[in-house]
Structure formats: structure tokens, C-alpha cells
Amino acid sequence: MTATILDGNALSAHLRTELAGRVAALTARGVQPCLAVILVGEDPASAVYVRNKVAGCEKTGMRSIKDVYAPDVDPAVVFARIAELNADPAVHGILVQLPLPRHFDSEAVLEAIAPEKDVDGFHAENIGALMQGNPRFIPCTPYGVMKMLEAGHVPLKGAEAVIVGRSNIVGKPMAMLLLAQSCTVTVCHSQSKDLAFHTRRADILVAAVGKAKMITGDMIKPGATVIDVGINRLPDGKLCGDVDFESAKEVAGLITPVPGGVGPMTITMLLTNTLESAERTLK
Ligand SMILES: NC(=O)C1=CN([C@@H]2O[C@H](COP(=O)(O)OP(=O)(O)OC[C@H]3O[C@@H](n4cnc5c(N)ncnc54)[C@H](OP(=O)(O)O)[C@@H]3O)[C@@H](O)[C@H]2O)C=CC1
Ligand SMILES: Nc1nc(=O)c2c([nH]1)NC[C@@H]1CN(c3ccc(C(=O)N[C@@H](CCC(=O)O)C(=O)O)cc3)C=[N+]21
Ligand SMILES: [Mg+2]
């Protein structure tokens, strides 16, 4: 038995068709959704993701603004640009691509974005709202994972969910969303003892570490749902996840591939958040 693949490209294509319809309806009412993306520096991976985000906007009929700054830019310039975008009623979403160069205070940058336009869901106010069960914007990657679990009809109530990774952008919000759906949630990290003990108990295993192929088939419960958030570039230039797909697919029940899994869903949920931000301006 090999696992069924949860196809993020196919699910994205379906969801983006629905989005395009809502974008067209809103545009006809005089509001074209617009996402502004700020990129500092020339990290090639970041450039690819930003390109995918802008292309996603174009294909669904949204407007996008892309501002690229030199890696040594004065942070004051970026703060001033964020203030301008905050004040522009034609802009509905603002995203500052992470990571930022070391001379930036990333937390201060995220807090400078108007919470009503924080389509990443990284502002403290939005994280607080999420924790209280009253989310304004759900962070895109964990949101995309929840959509994939839904599409795969994965039972959540009472399920053992194990997340490997506790970052602010993936692991922590992922834990909140699964908890809200009544999973029993375990969060592992670099100081966890006996990682495999935890992962083998998981009905739902989410890997968000950034270490190529670290989750192997022997660490997976037979029939489990395995969600691979990791994006790692191998020496030969190919992308791979945190899960060793070849061994994992022999054990798992459902599994997401890399590429073509969580990555495209992240962008789809970013587009969703931007559209919903624009829709709220009419309410
Ligand atoms: N598909 C997508 O859309 C996205 C993919 N990504 C990818 O997901 C991965 C994770 O990203 P991100 O959350 O930002 O990464 P971070 O580097 O911020 O966090 C990694 C987490 O993994 C933990 N960790 C590191 N080594 C181990 C280990 N040996 N055992 C258990 N836990 C470990 C760290 O623990 P500790 O806290 O103790 O340091 C940390 O909590 C990356 O590959 C990234 O590229 C990220 C965002 C979106
Ligand atoms: N403010 C901010 N918001 C983010 O959402 C954010 C960020 N910063 N910094 C970096 C991470 C990473 N991330 C990805 C988005 C899309 C793909 C994606 O499209 N992946 C494709 C392949 C892309 C490729 O070919 O390299 C796939 O998995 O099929 C991957 C990773 C968003 N992030
Ligand atoms: Mg990080």
C-alpha cells in the first residue's frame, strides 16, 4: 500500500478559480483587491516566492505592487513606505518578505503594518485574536494546511497531532489551528527528547523544520496523514521537503509532496486573505 497524495497544486487551482470569481464581482463594484509585497535584498529563494505571489495576483485578477530594496537599505525608508501603504485606501494587503537583513528589527517591521492589512497574520494583534479563537487573518501556511486536511477528509476531533517546529510563522499558529479543531496537539523542537517517540504517535504529523528528509518512514504511524511544510534545496538544485518522501509514502495514509504541496497552498491562502481584506472595506 502506498499513500494517497494530497495535491496542493490541484487544490490551489480549484480554490483560485473560486477566488477569481469573487475578485471579478468585487472589482465590478469598484474595489479591485490589491496586495503590496516588500522585498529587501536579493535572496534567490525569496525572489522566487515573491514572483509566485505576484503571478498569483495577476492570474486571479488582483492588483499587486512589488517594491524591491537593496540589502543595505536604511530601515527608515522601508518604515516610511509601510506607512504610505497603510494610508493608501487602494491597498488591501501588505506583506514584508522574511527573512529581513540582520540590521532590521523584524518584529518592529511586522508591528508597523496596519493590522487590518496584515494578510500574513503576523502582527501581534492578529496573533492574539487567533489565540482567542477570533481570527482576523489566519497565517497563510497553517491556513493552507488546514484546507488540505479538509480536502483530504482527515478526521480532526480527538486526533493526535504532532508538529515538528515551533516558529512564529508556521509551528505555533499551526498548533493553535489544530487545537481549535479539537486535536490533541504536541509541539516538538530542537530540544525535544526522542523525536521519533512523538512522531510515531501522530495521526497527523506536520513537519516544519527546514532539514531535508529528516522524517523517515520508520518515524511514521501506519496510515497517518503526513504534511510536509519544509522547503529545502539539495546540492543538485532540486527542492525537497523535511520528509523522506520515498520511505514515508510506504507507511503514511495521506501525504503532501514537495514541491506541489503546502507551498502553492500558502500563496492561495495569501490571495484569499487579500480578497477578504478588500471585501471587508465594503462592509
Ligand atoms: N511551504 C511553505 O509555504 C513554507 C515553507 N517553509 C519552510 O518550512 C521550514 C520551516 O520554516 P520555519 O518555521 O520558518 O523555520 P524556523 O527555522 O523558524 O524553525 C524551525 C523549527 O524547527 C525546529 N528544529 C530544528 N531542528 C530540529 C530537530 N533536529 N528536531 C526537531 N525540531 C527541530 C526548531 O527548533 P528550535 O525552536 O528549538 O530552534 C524550530 O522550532 C523551512 O524549510 C521553510 O523553508 C516556511 C514557511 C512557508
Ligand atoms: N512574510 C512572509 N510570508 C510568507 O508567507 C513567507 C515569507 N515571508 N518568507 C518565506 C516563507 C516561505 N514561503 C513559501 C511560499 C511559497 C512557496 C512555493 O510556492 N513553493 C513551491 C515551489 C517554489 C519553487 O520552485 O522554489 C512548491 O512548494 O511547490 C514556498 C515557500 C512563504 N514564506
Ligand atoms: Mg523562520
UniProtKB/TrEMBL annotation:
Residues 139-280 form the Tetrahydrofolate dehydrogenase/cyclohydrolase NAD(P)-binding domain. Gene3D superfamilies: Leucine Dehydrogenase, chain A, domain 1, NAD(P)-binding Rossmann-like Domain. Keywords: Amino-acid biosynthesis, Histidine biosynthesis, Hydrolase, Methionine biosynthesis, Multifunctional enzyme, NADP, One-carbon metabolism, Oxidoreductase, Purine biosynthesis. Its EC number is 1.5.1.5, 3.5.4.9. It comes from the Bacteria. It catalyses: (6R)-5,10-methylene-5,6,7,8-tetrahydrofolate + NADP(+) = (6R)-5,10-methenyltetrahydrofolate + NADPH; (6R)-5,10-methenyltetrahydrofolate + H2O = (6R)-10-formyltetrahydrofolate + H(+). Pathway: One-carbon metabolism; tetrahydrofolate interconversion. One of its GO terms (molecular function) is methylenetetrahydrofolate dehydrogenase (NADP+) activity. It holds the Pfam family THF_DHG_CYH. NADP(+) binds at G165, R166, S167, I231. Catalyzes the oxidation of 5,10-methylenetetrahydrofolate to 5,10-methenyltetrahydrofolate and then the hydrolysis of 5,10-methenyltetrahydrofolate to 10-formyltetrahydrofolate. Transmembrane segments: none annotated. CDD domains: NAD_bind_m-THF_DH_Cyclohyd (cd01080). This is Bifunctional protein FolD. Belongs to the tetrahydrofolate dehydrogenase/cyclohydrolase family. Residues 6-120 form the Tetrahydrofolate dehydrogenase/cyclohydrolase catalytic domain. HAMAP family: THF_DHG_CYH. Homodimer. PROSITE patterns: THF_DHG_CYH_2. It comes from Sulfurisoma sediminicola. The lineage of its organism: Bacteria, Pseudomonadati, Pseudomonadota, Betaproteobacteria, Nitrosomonadales. GO terms for biological process: L-histidine biosynthetic process; methionine biosynthetic process; purine nucleotide biosynthetic process; tetrahydrofolate interconversion. The keyword Methyltransferase does not apply.
